[in-house]
Amino acid sequence: MPNRLRIVIAGSAGRMGQVLIEAVNSAPDCVLYGALERVGSPNVGRPAALMDGVLITDDMATTLRGADALIDFTRPEGTLAHLALCRELGVNIIIGTTGFSAEQKQQIADAGKDIGVVFAPNMSVGVNLTFKLLEIAAKVLNEGYDIEVVEAHHRHKVDAPSGTALRMGEVVAEALGRDLSECAVYGREGVTGERDPSTIGFATVRGGDIVGDHTVMFAGIGERVEITHKASSRMTFAQGALRAARYLSTSGAGAFDMQDVLGLRG
Ligand SMILES: NC(=O)C1=CN([C@@H]2O[C@H](COP(=O)(O)OP(=O)(O)OC[C@H]3O[C@@H](n4cnc5c(N)ncnc54)[C@H](OP(=O)(O)O)[C@@H]3O)[C@@H](O)[C@H]2O)C=CC1
Ligand SMILES: O=C(O)C1=N[C@H](C(=O)O)C[C@H](O)C1
């Protein structure tokens, strides 16, 4: 089929990488153009998936040349290396990786001057709707409600709190006119004293194969509002990443997130 989007997947042997390949191979408007793993990975040279004929490679430059988009769910240092090359070669990038520092996030935003970038800690439609619901809830429950963010993920996750939980905290803090970096409390232990009402608390659970659960609690006196999202399949993230690739194919250069892709901005 002509004009299919030529997609390269980074971290192609990883949990998200494998689901992304399945999503690309099932999408009639996309083709798997390449599959990357880091230098030294035992997966280099192996098939990216059964039957698609693409072998995993560590040759970033050759693989990215001629591609429409790179989808990257890896680790911050890998993503930043991929980003630099995409910028050089004029290839759009969709970044799902979490765990970046503020300075690294700025590097990602800067790349939007030259290429299309979608960067989002969670690509599911449901979570991005939840961000909007949180904004409304925070504006209504703006006094007398203690805000706690609770997240649970599988045993292999390496960063905490999750990128989604942090973004949820930012959305709520912004709606309340607070700065998350000044009011976040990450976990509690020992004699902590009474809760400071201006804080936003975070709690992290890790275990088994939990795909990704997030709850934001607005706890008042006499009532409690909880807004929860539960992901039960990584395919929801992969489908969001493909929507982002389609969005970038017509958007031109710029730094975007899933609110732009899903038309939820504003
Ligand atoms: N935005 C979203 O919607 C979602 C985001 N995520 C995020 O995506 C990321 C990946 O998650 P997941 O797939 O579970 O993790 P995995 O560990 O299963 O996969 C990561 C892949 O990236 C590779 N990788 C690691 N470091 C580098 C590097 N420096 N250069 C190139 N490749 C590298 C790994 O290779 P190796 O095994 O050799 O280290 C592995 O193949 C995480 O940050 C996670 O939080 C996850 C789900 C949804
Ligand atoms: O590592 C994961 O698995 C996930 N990471 C993302 C995050 O850190 O928010 C998104 C999703 O919850 C799954």
From TrEMBL:
Pathway(s) the chain acts in: Amino-acid biosynthesis; L-lysine biosynthesis via DAP pathway; (S)-tetrahydrodipicolinate from L-aspartate: step 4/4
Record's protein name: 4-hydroxy-tetrahydrodipicolinate reductase
SUPFAM superfamilies: Glyceraldehyde-3-phosphate dehydrogenase-like, C-terminal domain, NAD(P)-binding Rossmann-fold domains
Membrane-crossing residue ranges in chain numbering: none
Oligomer and partners: Homotetramer.
Localization of this protein: Cytoplasm
Lineage of the organism: Bacteria, Pseudomonadati, Pseudomonadota, Betaproteobacteria, Nitrosomonadales
Stretches assigned to the Dihydrodipicolinate reductase N-terminal domain: 6-123
Top-level division of the source organism's lineage: Bacteria
Enzyme Commission number(s): 1.17.1.8
Residues of the active site: 153, 157
Gene3D superfamilies reported in the protein's UniProt record: Dihydrodipicolinate Reductase, domain 2, NAD(P)-binding Rossmann-like Domain
